[in-house]
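#struct-pred

JT: dropping the chains for the assembly here, can someone run the whole complex?
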Amino acid sequence: MARKPAPGPRDERGVLAARILTAAREQFAQHGWAGTTMRAVARTADVDPALVYHYFVSKERLLDAATDPPQRWLRSVAETWTTPVDELGAALLRLMLGAWRDDEIGPVLRAVLLTAAHEESTRDKLRRVVESSLIGVSQLGVNDEDRLRRSGLISSQIMGLAMMRFVWKIDPVASMSEDDLIAAVAPNLQRYVDGELT
Amino acid sequence: MARKPAPGPRDERGVLAARILTAAREQFAQHGWAGTTMRAVARTADVDPALVYHYFVSKERLLDAATDPPQRWLRSVAETWTTPVDELGAALLRLMLGAWRDDEIGPVLRAVLLTAAHEESTRDKLRRVVESSLIGVSQLGVNDEDRLRRSGLISSQIMGLAMMRFVWKIDPVASMSEDDLIAAVAPNLQRYVDGELT
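RK: done, full complex below.
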């Protein structure tokens, strides 16, 4: 018989909720918004479907919880922005590559990118993540308009690289070493940071 | 009563097939692979579901037909690659911006990008489109490895820009004028074309 933990004592709640969120990220990333069901998430997490509803109420709220960026990620983003401006291109690229390698942050980023195209609320979240992490805290540019443009262009290159390397897995970008990738791409990011754009 | 054209005379076949493909692109782009049904495509195209099966057999084959790049697009890609090498960065960017504006090509590109994340066969097709249009015909680099890297990096920037501007619609990249975008991005593409990458 399948093991189906019932809603357990209080200290078990965090463990089960985390297990459900891990399963949800996996399902959303693999099957998209429309292809994911609460039942499949429960099965992947090895819990009773009723527990998924009990903790997360609806598929919308489950997606919302599953795609919330960890505090640790927001802190490392904020830290990266303290890098001296002439090394920022490489630092932002290293931040992204490290995030995708991270056991906790990588699956969240993947779930966000893979549901954003079809789910308006995740698109809003992607927008907010981009704005707060890549745009909001940046000190770039001579004025607000310039700052937003530079940050948006940086995001376009970083996101495109993430799609090619981690989501669509198109070679040779998918298989290049991180060192080669940084050598090739960081100077382009650096131009968006402090180069002439007009 | 709803108008439901039956399989008509031979010269009607092309018209109905085109209408089904248009509806399929719209559905796949909006709801993704898992969220699209043959029935919804038939409803959008205003035809009988049996006709969709009759012409396209299965959802897999419908997606395949709906995401085939038009010959006209492949020709304009090949033509772009004849641009003098020092203007290629801007030319490739103009090609992409024009393609998204095109009534026929734009919806195909959108359907490819929006289903590639969750459908292995579309991911293969995206790979082939990237390889044949952006990589295969290019004359870049000093050897094959260098050529493939340069083309892959160009694709990463162009695809990232397309996602930000047309799919996720994140400002200011989504709303910048084409001229501003070309001024900001073309020099970065040009570096991937003929700059020092190591």
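JT: nice. The CA atoms of residues 163 and 169 of chain A lie 7 Å apart. The longest helix of chain A spans residues 144-167.
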